[in-house]
Design a protein that fits this description.
The structure is a single chain. About 45% of the residues lie in helices and about 20% in strands. It has 11 helices and 16 strands. The strands form 6 sheets. Strands 9-8-10-11-14 form a 5-stranded parallel sheet, sandwiched between helices. Strands 1-6-7 form a 3-stranded antiparallel sheet. It is globular, with a radius of gyration of 24 Å.
Length: about 350
Amino acid sequence: MKNLSKNLALAAFSIIFILVVLEVAFRFIDIKEGIGVRTKYINLAQSLVVEPHPLYMEHKDDPGLVYKYYGYRPGSVWATEYPSNPRSTFDDKNRIYYKINSDGYRDYEFGPKSDKVFRITAIGDSFTIGEGVYASQSFPKVVEKSLRAKGAGVEVFNLGVNGHGIRDEWVTLDTALPRYRPDLVLWAYVLNDISHADIDLWTLRKRGSMKKGANTPSKLYNYIKKRLQRRSYSGDYFDFINQLYQDPTMWGELEKLFKEAVLKIRKNNADIVVILFPDLNGYNKDGYRFEPVHEKLRAIFEANGVSYIDMTKSYQEYGPLKLRVHAVDAHPNEIAHQIAAEALASEIASRLAPLPLPPQ
């Protein structure tokens, strides 16, 4: 009995000693608690213009939240800042800057429509604008460069706005179609595009959960707690997205707005190609967790007679971890944009007649 008590006491002492050593180590080398290490947005709030629109109403689940259409302020500049620079692609402050043109988009200045140029407008969210990469590395601009190199008279306008969803893209088309008169709309769809409003609710829910449980004086305890929280948030997010696509109301809205958007595009004598991006956090050893969602989306595209490219297999073959902007940011990096652009350029080239290059 004495030996058992002695062994238990020794084990308890060893555990306490190890915990004390780890706590001292965490304090000495200032290990961050993890959950706060993320992308920072510099001057983004000041660069946004928020406008009311009939499509946006108070959300039934939270009447205190009112959603409005937003875009970028013409001539503004904002940035994303990362905690490190593993690919040596950011500046000395680990930042990527987004310069907005006079039309409110991250692109060169748009000129008048020429009958000798095939015009493409790319719509979508942060994947389209190219969050985390330079403007020239975003897939719309790479598509433009690739097609011009093949002798096609093409211009591609990048109308992406980070955070946009199906409602926002529907509204964007209202303005873009008559203003720019595109021959082709390139629509980049990302899984959280199903509803701008509900993704905002997810963000608020996540932030609220992260604030639960005050920090203790122990850096070790806070680190472990927040790491476990982050793992829980990841699983919750997968469930959340899947629930959205299983919700008849949410799915019904997506079907309705997408069908209306396609009709709107065709009434303006334009064609449409959709590129479906996978969630780079959705891959695991068993494959791609959101494949059932992609099946539903592909069915919508086919039901509306829309050509589409699904990047899921291409990204999986390359290795999703190699395609991220940063460890804390699952936006596609310049490699992922290049892969997407190559697939799109091949699809679009088959629709083009040889044309002279547009004036520079």
